[in-house]
Each structure stands twice: as C-alpha cells, then as structure tokens.
Hints:
α4 packs across α5 (105-116) and α8 (237-253) crosses α9 (271-294). By secondary structure, the protein is α/β, with parallel strands linked by helices. The strands form 2 sheets. The chain has a 7-stranded mixed β-sheet. A two-stranded antiparallel ribbon has the order 4-5. It is 40% helix and 18% strand. The two termini are 25 Å apart. A hairpin with a 5-residue loop joins β8 and β9. It is built from 9 helices and 9 strands.
Amino acid sequence: MNNNASFFQQNIHNAYMHFERNQWSELRDNVKLTLSEDDIKQLQGINESLSMEEVVDIYLPLSRLLNLYVGARQYRHTVRDKFLNAHNDKVPYIIGIAGSVAVGKSTSARILQALLSRWPEHPKVALVTTDGFLHPNQELVARNLMHKKGFPESFNTKALIEFVSAIKSGKKSVSAPIYSHLTYDIIPDQTLQVEQPDIVILEGLNVLQTALNEPNQAHRVYVSDFVDFSIFVDAETDLLKTWYIQRFLKFREGAFTDPNSYFHGYSKMSKREAVEIASKIWDEINGINLQENIRPTRDRANLILKKSTNHQVSCVKLRK
C-alpha cells in the first residue's frame, strides 16, 4: 500500500467509532422488542436464518439510535417553523441502506421498517427499493446493458433523484416504479404510492453512489444528497459469493420453478450446473460491480454493519 492509500485508510479508520457485537448490544438501553418470532420469520431473506438474538443485539440498538436522530430532526423543524412563524409541510426522514447483492440489505431494511414503525413518534415508515428505477429490460437490451444489470448505467438515475427530491420537498404523494424479481423486469402500469410518511427507507445497490463515469460531473446532484442517515451492510467478498450461490440454489428449487420466472430454465439444471452458472454470474457481473461501484461507497456511510458467517453482524462502525 502506498503512502497516499495508507493515509486515506487511516483517516477513514479514525472517522468511525468501532463497536464489537457485545458492546453494541448494550446500547439498546432496555428498549423492548416489539416483534414476535413469527414477525421475524416473515422478515428474513430466503438465504438467511434471522434469530431473535440478532434483532435484539443489533437492530434494537440501531432503531433506538435512529429514533433519536429522527426526533432531533423533527425538533429542528419545529424550531425553524417557530422562528419563521410558519407551518411547513412535513418532510420525511430518509434512511439509505446500501450493500452488495446477497448481503442481506433487504432484510435489514424490512427489520428496521418494522421496528421504527412501532415507535410512537413516527408510526408511518415507507420502504422503497431502488430496483424499481432500473431501466426496463427492453431498454437495457437496446443499450446492450442486460449483462450490466445493477451497474450504475443500468439505472434511471434521473428518475430516482426526482423521486427522492419530491419526497424531500414534502410532496403529499409520490409514485415509484415497481420491480418484479420473478419476471426480472419493471412491472408495467403499476406504481408504489408514497404518501408523506414520517420515514422513508431507501434500499439498493446505488444509494451511496456519486458518479456514473460520465463527463461534466461538477454540478451533478446525487441520491445521497437527500439521505439523512446512511447504512452500509458489509461482508468479505468470499462470504458474499458463497451466499449468492446458496441463494441461487434456493431460488432454483423455489421461485425459478414458476413458468413465469425469467430464470425458469435454471430450475431444470443439475445442482452442479447451477453452482457453476451462479459462480460465473458472480465472477463476471456481481463481483465486478461490488468492487468497482458498491464497496467504494462504503466509507461514505454513517454506519457500517459488518457481517460474518451465518449472516450475523460481528461489529458496527458509527461515524463520529
């Protein structure tokens, strides 16, 4: 590592407070768990075994922290309105959750939505995934980008920024496209309506990305400009590849068996063939996207959840 890289890494390290799992779990400060075992089973991802312990040790302290941040923002708005002698439209608090394919960020988003909606100060919590802002397959094919689905250039970033901008402007109703993981495409003529929630959780690969490798970047507005608190769900690359392959195999036995599935053909493969194709997809698409576009955004996050084996969070880093 050269001196410049070493200096950068040291400064990034100094920017965060580091908590081992047991240290972090103590910060829930007697906050009671409001989710049942059945709730947790419904929230977990297809390739995850989400335990009650994980929710209590990791997500309850995180929900407490976020509740304090949201409360502070709401108080600031009250002070502002008092100063201006005016009443402005309610502006939702936006939480961004980023991370690799197969890291479990969708599960993290669902858990936080369930926990945060149970705090009396902000009962209305919306969850939006940026998958809905992928270009439709027809357009990706026309642009020769189907092999780069999930890369920055595969998203309609302009539409995504307009969406989060409208949310932050206090607009009463904002619509978002809906993506189907079954058909692997945007669902035509269907939208998700977001109607002035207290909190919006925005989850996706590209929440913290700042550039599209295009010229004239100087005055570009980014999605992260509208995010109040950002979380990056992280894990070592070899674990992520293993989890991706495991998830692929479970889809092969489940969702892929549906004749309407875009990947229906994979359900007829042998296990060995499925492992080979999943490994190839990771090496040629998801792994490259992780290294080039996703992991470089990690150190911009306000909080990092570092996962180890069995999808358990081993440590938490909170920006100072």
